[in-house]
Amino acid sequence: MADLQRIVDELAARLGRPLLLEDRVQRVVAYSEQHGAMDDIRRDSILRRQTTPEVRQWIRAAGVHDSPGPLRTPGAPHLGLLPRVCLPVRHADGLLGFLWFIDAEPAMSDQEIAEASAAMPALALALFHESLAVGLASHRELEAVNGLLLGERDAARQLIEAGAYPQAQPVTVQVARPRTAQPDDALRLALEQGLLAVRRRLSGHHPLHLVRYDHAVLLTAGPPVSADEVHAAMPVPVVVGIGRTRPELAQAADSYREARHAAEVTARVPGLGRTSEWARLGVYRMLTQLPEQELHPGLEGLLDDAQYLPLLETLETYLDLAGSAVATSRALRLHRTSLYYRLQRVEELARTDLKDGGERLALHLSLKLARLSGRYLPRDSHTSS
């Protein structure tokens, strides 16, 4: 990156014009000190490191991707875009990026464009080497993080030796799962963009990340960072699960397993909100390991008939509150007589006895399992576990 910035600064100084360098997908790579004419697009590109889709479409339509040499592009007042001169940066016939000058106050002369063109070979070579270095580093990091989450202890050593993670630091893993339905390439790209934004915000926490088929993984040094950072950066709605902090990077797989579990439970139990910590999941920590068909037989008929939903909600609240009729009546704002009637109906319909501790436990666990499977969807936000 140092070579790129040096070439950009030297060329800008020789021409007396500010310039901006983008890679082939029009992400800002380097830019000179700004003076003279400037529009909203140049300012926003520098601040956000990327132009808007509308501007990229306009520029593509101007032919910059196909141009073998310098090209003047017209202004677009409706986009806040001044006229420009674009010099495509190519290496071995491959397009690497674009060098941009604002073509106003005054317009660039042919001699200035020729001088900028003369700098293209050195700029192309520097940009090519930079893309190779970044690509190689990213690929190695991806492989190491993937191995780390699979429990390969050597992966932690590789990341630490490469300077991607500090030595002797604890690690916490968070998993983000989309709330939307079927995963696809567009969704994976959205998760990738979100995690890259999180990494920029949390650079002091030495973040690492990985995007898998249906979820995204974020690793940070130390205790968990606020999940609000993840939610704010994601272009799509997600639920976030947080694993327990482990004392060293080599144990990240354990925190990952917990975070993934927590995210799965949060996605399946809407009442839990949008973020769950493994340590606070209560009984849900073990319930996902049980087969869904192992429900109390007396509840099957009640779960399949919507008219019995109030009875199930009453039963769950009663069991969550340790069988206290006083607390249940208060929580549901239900008269004690009505509560006893509902509980009696549950006993009759489910062929059970709520005075039997074993029966109460089986009913309670069955209701939580039914929440996880989606068979039981209470109308309130009661989430005790």
Automatic annotation (TrEMBL):
Entry keyword Disulfide bond: no
Entry similarity comment: Belongs to the CdaR family.
Annotated GO MF terms: DNA binding
Upper classification of the organism: Bacteria, Bacillati, Actinomycetota, Actinomycetes, Streptosporangiales
A family per Pfam: HTH_30
Domain PucR C-terminal helix-turn-helix, first and last residues per copy: 311-369
Keyword list, A-Z: DNA-binding
Residues annotated as domain CdaR GGDEF-like: 155-265
Name the UniProt record assigns to this protein: DNA-binding transcriptional regulator, PucR family
Keyword DNA-binding appears in the UniProt entry: yes
Species whose genome carries this gene: Nonomuraea jiangxiensis
